[in-house]
Amino acid sequence: MPGIYGFSKDISKSESQTLIEKMSFGLDWEDRFLRQFESGQGWGIGRNTLGILENNSQPLWDLNKNIGLVFEGELYDTAPIKNYLNQHNFHCESDEEILLGLYKIDGENFASRLNGAFSAALFNRENNSIIILNDRLGLHPVYYAKFGSTFLFASGVRALLEDRSLPRRIDRVAIQEFLTFDHLLHQRTLLEDVKLLPQASYLKF
C-alpha cells in the first residue's frame, strides 16, 4: 500500500539502513510500488508510492539538508498557500514543497493551514526530532509506537512489526471493543504499544 514510514532508534548506520528497507517491504511487498527512503545513524524515513500522478524524489530536503520530508496524498486549495509562500520568497510547485516551505516559515504552527487527504513526516537532523501528521478526516492513517528511546511510525502496522524489539503485548480491551462494536475505538490497536494517530493530529518525538 502507498504510505510513509520511519523511526528514531539508538542503532548504527548499517542497522538503520536494514530497518528502513525492511519497513518499506513490511508496508507492502509488491513490486509495483516505488520505494523511496533514506537513513542515517539512528534514524530513517521513507514512503511507498505508485508514482503515477507524480514521481518526485523523496525524502525532500531543505537547502541545508537539515529538514527532510516524506509525504503521501494530496493537498487541496493550495493557491492561497502558494501566495503566502511567495511573499516569503518560497516558490513552490509540488505539495511536498508547499508543506516543507510552510514548516520553514511557520515552524510547528504550519499544519493549521493544511487541507487535503494526506499523511506526512518531517525529520530534523539538528535535534533528531520527528514530526508526524495526517489530514483532518484521518483518510490516510498513521500508526506509531513509543517504547524506551525508540519511536516508530508507518501507514500500516506490519511495517512497525519489522522492528523485532517492538513489544507484542495484546491489548485485551481492544479485543473486547472489537467483539462488541466490530471495530476499535479511539487510538487503540490490537497491540498495547501501537497506537493510531487521531485524525487532524500532529505528533512530535
Explain the overall architecture.
With 205 residues, this protein is of the alpha+beta class. Helices cover 24% and strands 30% of the residues. It contains 5 helices and 11 strands; from the N terminus they run βαββββααββββααββ. The chain has helices spanning 13-27, 79-87, 95-106, 157-160, 172-181; strands at residues 3-8, 34-40, 43-49, 60-61, 67-75, 116-124, 129-134, 143-147, 150-154, 194-196, 202-204. The strands form 2 sheets. The chain has a 6-stranded antiparallel beta sheet with strand order 2-3-1-9-8-10. Strands 4-5-6-7-11 form a 5-stranded antiparallel beta sheet. Strand 4 and strand 5 (67-75) form a beta hairpin. It starts with a strand and ends with a strand. The mean pLDDT is 92.
Largest sheet: 6 strands, antiparallel
N-to-C SSE series? EHEEEEHHEEEEHHEE
For the termini, the CA-CA separation is 25 Å
Instruction: Please report the number of helical segments.
Output: 5
Can you summarize this structure?
With 205 residues, the protein is α+β, with helices and mostly antiparallel strands.
